[in-house]
Design goal:
The chain is mainly α. The chain is built from four helices and four strands, in the order ββααββαα.
């Protein structure tokens, strides 16, 4: 979440705020921001590119392309964080 309630006040979780800002910059065409976001998720893309115990380059390429499309089309909401984005990405992948 962008805001977390502590004992007596609300604090901004800067990791999520930074992620959201980077994400919005990527959607506006900032290639450096897109690359940084991609690199945050790259290991997960690799992990999900194994079929029958072997790395599948085509699967990795497909997941990478879908990831970038999801970044482009994703609509951020105030209460969403990078873990929520990941869940949405996985659900979108399973649909197609």
């Amino acid at each position: 979440m962008l805001f977390q309630k502590t004992e007596k006040k609300w604090e901004i979780d800067m990791d999520d705020m930074t992620f959201k800002n980077k994400f919005l910059r990527a959607q506006k065409g900032d290639e450096k921001a897109l690359k940084e976001i991609y690199l945050e998720f790259e290991q997960l893309l690799y992990k999900n590119s194994y079929i029958n115990g072997r790395f599948n380059e085509d699967c990795f390429q497909d997941l990478s392309e879908r990831f970038i499309k999801c970044v482009d089309s994703f609509e951020f909401q105030d209460d969403i964080d990078k873990h929520d984005f990941l869940e949405i990405l996985v659900k979108h992948h399973k649909k197609t």
